[in-house]
Amino acid sequence: MARRKDPEGGLPPPDKAPTQSLFAWLRGRFFAGMVIAAPIAVTFLILQFLIGEIDKRVVPLIPAALNPETYLKYAVPGFGLIVLVVFLTILGGIATNLIGRSVISVGDRILSQVPIVRSLYSAFKQLVEVFAKDNTDQFSEVVLIEYPKTGTWCLGFVSSPAKGEIGATLGGEYLGVFVPTTPNPTSGFLMYVDSKEVIRLKMTVEEGAKMILSAGLVVPEFPPAPKPDPKAPKKILP
Fold first, then answer.
1. Of 120, 149, 222, 224, which is least surrounded by CB within 10 A?
2. Between the CA of residue 18 and those of 15, 21, 25, 86, what are the distances in Å?
3. Structural domain boundaries enclosing 194
């Protein structure tokens, strides 16, 4: 394309690309560094808080002869966590043999009969068993359901098909869908929806949880990147 001539008959100088100021350059680099450092710092602070709380409660229970703080002039960070892991491992080993199962069964019956304790104990026991149970059907699928009104869709996780009295009452193929709230996914609603009225998504449960935690700001890539085939021959670069 021909350049426009100036009044004197010459060609004007070519358009120059806008230069970025030093302040804008520094600001961009600062925010880029903050995006990288913020998740690392938050993770470190949370782990530091949890380890400190565990140490504060476990270390005082350790006998003085076994406590390294008795011989050292400073506290050993994470020692309480190590003791807790060892204790839970030993407890799990005891619980797997015949005598251990009998003792735990007696304790379970006693706690289940105390008027106030049994409600809390049974609720937490069922909750722990649900999360500890190795069941691939639990929260294995992310779906969209039309809620709370027509034309409005929300993200949910399939828990299990309707069973027992609920399945017999509803009939048909209904799915139990847990709809978590944002940004606290531990609370939400349990709904039973006709399987024909849900839209099944290809994103993983982890990707769906990240999307809910970020209030929709973190969106998984679509279409998802193809996974490498381990059986495919590797390319050898020349």
1. 149
2. 9, 9, 13, 63
3. 142-213
